[in-house]
Structure formats: C-alpha cells, structure tokens
Specification:
By secondary structure, this protein is of the alpha+beta class. It folds into 4 domains: 116 residues, no CATH class; 37 residues, no CATH class; 94 residues, no CATH class; 108 residues, no CATH class. The strands form 3 sheets. A 5-stranded mixed beta sheet has the order 8-5-4-9-10. A 3-stranded antiparallel beta sheet has the order 1-2-3. Helix 11 runs antiparallel to helix 12. The radius of gyration is 32 Å and the shape is elongated. The N and C termini lie far apart (79 Å). The relative contact order is 0.06.
Length: 405
Amino acid sequence: MIKSIQHFEELGIKNLENVIEKFMKNPTDMASFVYGIKDEVITLGLNLIRETLEDCNQMLRDSGKRKVEWDVVRTDVKDLVTSLGALKFEKTLFKNKVTGKSGYLLDQILGIDAHERITEDADTQLLLEAVQTSYRRAGEETSLTAEVSKQTVKNKIHRLKFSPARDVPSEKKAVDYLYIDADEDHVALQFKEKKGDLQIGENHWKNNCVLAKLVYVYEGIEKESPKSKRNKLVNPHYFSGVYDGMDNQKLWDEVYEYLDRHYDLGKVKKIYLNADGGGWIQAGVKRMAGVTYVLDEFHLSKYLLKLTSHMLDSAEDAREELCRAIKEGAKEDFGKVVKRIDTCAKTDALRKRIRESAGYILSNWTAAVRRLSRREGLQYGRSCKPRIVREDEFKANGLESPGSR
C-alpha cells in the first residue's frame, strides 16, 4: 500500500494538478475536468487494492506456520473485475505436505473460488442492472472501467438459487381484506440444466416449453399519487416458479405460510382470489380454507368480447345484457342471450367460439357473479361495463375484426 501512495504522490498528484490547470484555462470544459479527476482516483483505488492483495499473499509466503504445512509451488497472476475496474495481482500456489493437495491460500482467506473473476461488489452491480435492463447492459455497468460479457451475466443469473423468504415480523398486521392474484404463462427454454438436454417429443418438436406460475398477495389497490391515473398494489409479495403435479400444493402452502406469518388471519373478513379458474388455481381454493374465488376482469372481459365481437353495432347492447344476467345471477337469462347471439353467427367457426366462450363463463359462473356484484372489499382495477371495442383489441385477442368481413 505504501508503494501505491508513493506512486500517487510522484505521478498522481502531478496529473491532478495538470487536470486542474487545464480546467482553469478553459472552465467551460467541466466534463473533461470531472473525467480527469475520476480517472486518477480510480487508478489510485485499483493500485491500493492490487498492492494490498499482494501484501497479503506475501505474508502467507513469509509465514512460519505456513512453511511447516505448505510448500511453495509457483506464483501466478490473477485477473479480477471489481466495481471500480479490472486489475491483475500476483498470488501463490501452495501444496500441502501431508495430503499433497494444492491450492491458493489467499483465495481461501478471501473466501473466493480459485476460478472466480468477479468480486462480490461487482456481482451486486451486475445483478441490479440485469434486473432493470438486459444482460448486455449489466455487463457494461458491472464495473466503472471494465466490462464482462453478456454470456457471463447470463451464466451467473442461471446459477442463482432462491429460497422462500422466512422473515417473521415482530407483529402481525390486522387488515380487513387480502387479495391473491394467480396466473400462468408459457416460457420457452434454451435448455433445462445444460445445453443439449431438451428432448424431442412425439410430434418431432423439442420439448422446450414450461408453464411458469405466478401468485402475488397484496392488501389492496391505491393511486400512485393523488392526481395519478395509474394504480399500484399495496404491499405486494410475489411467488413464482415452475410447479407441476404435487408441487402445486407446495406453492399454495408457501402462500398460506406467508399470509399466516404476516397477517392476523382471524381478523381478516375476506380473502379474494382473482384468477382465470385454471385447475391448479381451483386446487388452491380448496387448499386454503376461507378463500373466495373471483373471476378476474381480464378473462371475463376477454370472453364477453369473444361472445359478441361478430355482432357489429349490436355488440355493446349484447354485452350489456350478458353482464346484467351475470350480475343478477340469472343463468337462464344468460343462456337466452347466448342463443340470440348464436343465431347471428354465420359460420361454424363463430358458433364454436360462442359455445366455448359461453361454456367458460358458465363453468366459472359463481366467480363471474362475484366479479360483477360489487361485493364489499372486492377491488376493481377497471370497469367491466361493456363499451365499443377498438380495432386493435380484436387483433390483440386473436379475433377477426368486423371491418375485415
């Protein structure tokens, strides 16, 4: 460390003086002034880190206790990327006199793997940036003066293992209502554990798709700010992963454990589960007693749209009738409206879509009624009131626009 400080006194200070002198002659070039100062400070910092590590290595070489148990094999140069920048430093490979095992004692003291090239502080910066942007950007922002490849970023993220949160609050919250939203989506894989492990199915296609499930718990919905048109969830907590078969029970058990740890469930009036009625979600309703299943607005609106999109100018009136029947719980009236809608269909494809859409709502009838009945404590992200459907909404839902017929 003394050498680094002496080197800074001899050259670094002079360089800083030159940077300051240039700025005084041209004070409008503030950027060059700041960059010049930054470069010298970073250089000093990297030199201090390098020299300190090499001093630690030299202490190991000079240690009498080390000489009793370990022999010197050779000295190597290690590359290391820190959040400050990249550096090289010397470290010694030792061999144990009893076991014959070789190792870098400095690495063991520092708690890093012999092949690790990125320090923990740089790792932290890498992961923070990867979450916000991309692998490439994360590689660029890992260090002030060095970069790592996007493949390195990807490998690090794929090796991460997350354990369920087990934090226990000092006092459980008392709230009137809690909300659980659940959904799923297909995720395409490049590989499962390693490259080349994807199998070819009977259809001669790679089995490269998994069903990822997302569940999140929150206390309600509120405005992002008093005048904002955007809403946000209150104290959300997320659960996500690939769950199959009995693992679905594990997912819902994790959700319940979180609720039980953080909330006084005896004081909760109602827990609403907003979802699309999938089998694994219905299993969650049965798994956790006291949960009320409500059909989420997105899927209800989607199937109402599919039921009526072919009716052109009459579509809005038809959706109003359907919503009224659902809200009143009049299943017979709902069926009558569907029959009238079906008579307007001119193709078998349209009639099939009407049957499937009506069947979906009927199979989730009680949950749909709850959605439109405006029950106490039930949150509404947007209104289900029927309206004129825009051209882009037809395409977004995979439907044929009336204007194209």
